[in-house]
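Session log. Operator J.P. requested a structure for one protein chain; no other inputs attached. Running the standard single-chain path with token output.
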Amino acid sequence: MSEKILDNKCVVLGVTGGIAAYKSATLASRLVKEGAEVHVIMSANAVNFITPVTFETLTGNKCYIDTFDRNFRFDVTHISLAKKANLIMVAPATANFIAKAANGIADDMLTTVLLAAGCPKLVAPAMNTGMFLNPITQDNIEKLKHYGFTVIEPASGRLACGDTGAGKMPEPEELIKYIMKEISFSKDLKGLKVLVTAGPTREEIDPVRFITNHSSGKMGQAIARAAMLRGAEVTLISGPVNLPPVEFVETVNITSAEDLYRQVMERAGDFDLLFMSAAVADFTPAVKSDHKVKKNEVFSAEKPAADKTERTGNAENDETANGGRTWSLPLVQTRDILGELSKVRKDGQVLCGFAMETDNLLENAGRKLKTKKLDMIAANSLRTAGAGFAGDTNVVTVITENESRELGMLSKLETGMKLLDQAADIYRKKNS
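Structure written below.
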């Protein structure tokens, strides 16, 4: 898989006469960086806000304005572009353009290409709040949706005219996500429902402290994003992470292992592919204090494990060599989510577990595969370069009942794609 996920894709970018046209230059640049071939068509009014030379410099292609321009190679340009385009996005889309497009008017290069094209069409309205909220504009937007257009909701805020409200064109980084969702990958998972768990759990000691682990949630998010890009309906159950949310995915936020257990068991029956990549705490405090535990308090009167010196179990008397006290914190085991899930899952479902090890990777992961009755397990070692927590790469070995396959070092998105390939193959065999 190419790192530029829009390689070999042709995007036609329509730019109409609104002040937000300046943002479209950034959008064109980002599309090129992602590997897309970009052709820009401007309305006659758009050139009053930004020059065609800007787009030609950024894309390396002629910027089209006039349907009857004679300075081009001999073909019917509006037809050839319409056939070549994998997607058309109009951003900004003015009220005037939306009215014409909704009613099939083709009186310039942009509306002509739009009417001739059979590819996905995305529209990003940008205009004064009053114009956007006008019932006529709203009716025209509904017409576009009826005809299969994707209309991207404008942002709210202070507009160029000084008004405040809905009508701002979303930032290019947001718009490109819609393009990637639509055309970056084939939709071979369309119709499947995918459940992914991600991130760590936090087991509360008191209102200030908790037990957790180093999981960043990146691998789970990558699987969720990969499944979304391939057309699946995705739900992500995530522990506390410091990551932006995955676009176009239902995200359920949880904190503790018990929270995760409840959400998984409640939802799992509705899904076809299940990826349990969350790093679930094996133990949780037996007692959770409702106040911050002070240094002179103890959680338990039991004698802590002995080290080089005898301990009394009393925080006042137990001191380490450097003068610090020891605490005894009783823990209880959390629920075995994978084990419980394997008992109730449906025959056609595919269940993928994950194993992060420091030693005996294949042996430990293989044992987990059997004892948890999984279809597949993604195993990696903390000792392998490129496979640790929080990184953008992973080094995974996929283990099934019949084989063990090393994927090598890949980005986490690429790793997610490979795991989805394997799971989808198992699913097809189960449900053929």
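Operator note: The radius of gyration is 28 Å.
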